[in-house]
Specification:
alpha+beta; seven-stranded antiparallel β-sheet; 21% helix; elongated
Length: 275
Amino acid sequence: MKYIFTVIVLLAVVGSYFAFRDDTTDSVDTSHPTVTGVASAVDLDQVAFDGPYVVTITDADGNEHVIEVPSMGIQLCAAADRIASVGDIEVGDTVHVHGIINETGAIVPCESDDHFLIVTGTYTDETSGYQFNYTKSPDGYVLVDTTGGISLFDRAEYEAFIASASLDAREGPPALGVAVYANDENQSAAVWSTENSDLTNEGLAIGAPEEAVVGGANAVYFVADGLWPLHTYVVAHDSKMYVLTAMIPDGRDALLQDFMALVDTFTFVQTPDQL
């Protein structure tokens, strides 16, 4: 009789444990949502107490989502290579996140190797009247001002080049670029590109230039021969000519994809004299 009583008590304890465990599991959302939104706040204060980096984003429907990125042992995250540096995130950046919902309701992009935190920035040149989106982190680009425009370099390649520039003379890393020129005669992109081949390298084009549209404006596209193939869009808009270029070494398909993404998001904004 005593033995039977002990078994009954043991079954009751085990049953209570699993009931408690089930209740606890059900109280936590274990889904893996993918969310895109604009960063409205970046909180680094909790790092002082080994807490997480906290980023708040607002999606297209106006819903707020909180993202928590571990500050301690980040390299132990299953998705460490796919997580942007939170220090690169600025209010107004677009954030793409895929992760698990934790007990506080925040999205944590750390538990699986398919999780990610990607940050896209928007570069705006109000003087020349254009803007475009580009990947900031991870594996993002650094922007460098050039005469009459901007160049984008893979951050890791650019930092390595700068570190070695004083030690040996060599070609710089491949770059994406935007240059702006006056088009006082309001020529079409095709005519201006041909007459200014010293600026566009159309004289080295492989095949005939193709008509295109960029940002809703008249454009031509061609690939020029050189050290590396130079993909080029020449775009005519509002008495200016915009030349978008990308040096693409063989095997750098991701670089070409990033350039095409830049072209797809290239738009025009009002300049101060148009306001």
